């Protein structure tokens, strides 16, 4: 629930006289706001789905496999088990043959059991959620796997106070240190700080100044900056492009 919806729903209308025209206008405004919120949520989910699907395929390519639809192709559990084997380097139990629902549930359960053994916490998630193609829980599962196998081990030790930051905080701090001093770059988060593409280019330039002509980039040309960074990263550094400039 957004702050706007919360405010609207918590207003006390006791003893308040509202004429019909005002009431109609208010309802119209609430309907518009709710439809806008839903549209933004749908757009966010679409971006997440596309990004996570690219991430999954960037690892499955190592075993000559690929998914076409994140919500559909993980339902039988087989691709999910392959993904976990690639990421962990360990062998999971052999997948159950067959395409019936019971076979799919068994395979997904094998994958989830493996994650539990890896001490991955899967709150309120069962094999049936993935088999039924739940968009929200499938996205949640993939994000949990990303955290466990690619982000969790990132740490930066701060020698001045002997504190160790982990995962997201450490990654943010690393980005801040690597982009410090670059004109028009001020990394404060993982959202708005990256929109104009300069931070991505600065990160590449910091490590490979021969690949990026940073001084020629303009803050106002976000699409060019983003395309430039993603193309160079993929073609010159072998980093799979998980994001679209848009």
UniProtKB/TrEMBL annotation:
It comes from the Eukaryota. Keywords: Actin-binding, Repeat. One of its GO terms (molecular function) is actin binding. Transmembrane segments: none annotated. Signal peptide: none annotated. It comes from Candidula unifasciata. Residues 46-150, 165-246 form the Calponin-homology (CH) domain. CDD domains: CH_SPTB-like_rpt1 (cd21246). PROSITE patterns: ACTININ_1 (PS00019), ACTININ_2 (PS00020), CH (PS50021). InterPro entries: Actinin_actin-bd_CS, CH_dom, CH_dom_sf. This is Calponin-homology (CH) domain-containing protein. It holds the Pfam family CH.
């Amino acid at each position: 629930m957004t702050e706007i919806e919360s405010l609207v729903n918590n207003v006390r209308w006791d003893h308040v006289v509202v004429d019909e025209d005002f009431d109609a206008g208010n309802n119209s405004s609430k309907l518009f706001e709710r439809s806008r919120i839903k549209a933004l949520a749908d757009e966010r989910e679409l971006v997440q789905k596309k990004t996570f699907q690219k991430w999954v395929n960037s690892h499955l390519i190592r075993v000559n496999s690929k998914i076409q639809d994140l919500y559909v192709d993980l339902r039988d559990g087989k691709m999910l088990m392959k993904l976990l084997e690639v990421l962990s380097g360990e062998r999971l139990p052999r997948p159950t043959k067959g395409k019936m629902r019971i076979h799919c549930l068994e395979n997904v359960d094998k994958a989830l059991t493996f994650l539990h053994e890896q001490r991955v916490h899967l709150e309120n998630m069962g094999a049936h959620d993935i088999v039924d193609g739940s968009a929200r829980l499938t996205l949640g599962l993939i994000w949990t796997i990303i955290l466990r196998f690619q982000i969790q081990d990132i740490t930066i030790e701060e020698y001045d106070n002997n504190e160790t930051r982990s995962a997201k905080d450490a990654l943010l701090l690393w980005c801040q240190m690597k982009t410090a001093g670059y004109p028009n770059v001020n990394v404060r988060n993982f959202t708005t700080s990256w929109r104009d593409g300069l931070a991505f280019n600065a990160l590449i330039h910091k490590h490979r100044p021969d690949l990026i002509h940073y001084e020629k980039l303009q803050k106002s040309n976000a699409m060019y900056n983003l395309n430039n960074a993603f193309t160079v990263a993929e073609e010159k550094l072998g980093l799979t492009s998980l994001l679209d400039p848009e």
